[in-house]
């Protein structure tokens, strides 16, 4: 009788473990399917970021090209006697201010737009920044 009770307890334990195993396999299958779906979304997002970055670089190159052209036109207007003669004093000062403020900074090579460039933010950390105290005395 005692052996039969032990066998029954073992059988019930095996049934319970088998149910738990099925449940765990089902959970694993659901999680793996979700992970696969998230990986696909991540791949699409990365591709979209790459496309947008290419568009941004093209737009920035076009902007710099147009700003250079405008700078050349403004410089020509300011230098030529016929150009400055046709412009009033106020117009000349406005053009000078525009050429000095807006386009002077725009012609710096490698200049980025005012938008935040987050492409390498994760590569940098505060621990990577070295601080040299020898310049403090200067």
Give a short overview:
With 138 residues, the protein is mainly α. It is built from 4 helices and no strands.
Overview of the molecule:
There is one protein chain. This protein is mainly alpha-helical and 138 residues long. 77% of the residues lie in helices and 0% in strands. Helix 1 packs antiparallel against helix 3. The C terminus is likely disordered.
Q: In angstroms, what separates the terminal alpha carbons?
A: 94 Å
- Classify the beta-strand content into a percent band: under 5%
The topology string of helices and strands comes to HHHH
The major β-sheet equals: none
**Estimated structural class:** mainly alpha
Average predicted confidence as pLDDT:
77
Q: Summarize the amount of helix as a percent range.
A: over 70%
Question: Radius of gyration, rounded?
Answer: 34 Å
Principal-axis shape equals rod-shaped
Low-confidence stretches: 103-109, 111-116, 120-138
Number of DSSP helices? 4
What is the number of strand segments? 0
Keywords: Coiled coil
GO molecular function, one term: GTPase activator activity
Protein name: Rac GTPase-activating protein 1
GO biological process, one term: mitotic spindle midzone assembly
Distinctive features:
single chain; 4 helices; coiled coil; Rac GTPase-activating protein 1; GTPase activator activity; mainly alpha
SSE blueprint and pairings:
Blueprint: H1 2-79, H2 81-86, H3 89-106, H4 134-137
Helix pairs in contact: 1-3
């Amino acid at each position: 009788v005692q052996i039969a009770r032990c066998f029954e307890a073992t059988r019930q334990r095996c049934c319970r473990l088998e149910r738990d195993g099925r449940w765990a396999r089902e959970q694993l299958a659901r999680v793996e399917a979700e992970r696969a779906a998230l990986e696909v979304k991540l791949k699409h997002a990365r591709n979209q970021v790459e496309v947008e970055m290419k568009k941004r670089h093209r737009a920035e190159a076009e902007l710099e090209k147009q700003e250079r052209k405008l700078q050349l036109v403004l410089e020509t207007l300011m230098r030529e006697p016929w150009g400055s003669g046709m412009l009033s004093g106020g117009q000349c000062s406005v053009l000078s201010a525009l050429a000095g403020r807006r386009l002077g900074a725009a012609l710096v090579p490698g200049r980025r737009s005012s938008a935040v460039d987050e492409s390498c933010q994760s590569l940098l950390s505060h621990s990577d920044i070295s601080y040299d105290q020898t310049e403090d005395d200067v």
